[in-house]
EF-hand domain-containing protein
Amino acid sequence: MSASGRALVREKQIPANLKRVFEIMDTDADGKISQDDLLLVTEHFGYKIKPAEAEEIIWEVDEDCDKMVSWQEFTDMYDRCRKDKTGCEPKRLYFIVEFMIIDKDNGGEISVEEAIEDLYLQHGKEDLDDKLSDMFGDIDVNDPEAVLDLEKFVSAMRLGQLKQMREKTINKTKHTSSTLKKSSKTRY
């Protein structure tokens, strides 16, 4: 499948997957994700976060300051995070959502097979091994029993985000340094 074909398949799947995840996360079915909703969902997946952390995660996405995440805020967050090339976008809720998208059966674990399917649609065959390695870290991806729970997934994704930010900073520093060298040579 070509890159454009994969992108089209992924783009068609996103709205349905996002809606499914939003409905699961909206535990009281009031049309918004509250701090309590987030705590219940993360606890269900065995990822214990403190109420203060849940409040911060909601705050990062809450545009209208009602201390909840609406459907619009949820989809806006997802789009921003998917398009972020800097690694600077707050992604704590995004990582939870990505886990839930991949974990279609809500079993609380992502198998290598589930991850491969999703990563292939996002990145193609060329980057698959690197992305799989980033996601699973030191877990043997050739082991058919290898799985990630939400806590390990979020940890791996946060490390990936830090790596992305570091690379962006290094590249920017190199670019600035070479630009300064060029400009100092041309002045004299």
User: Anything to note?
Assistant: The chain has one domain: 3-176.
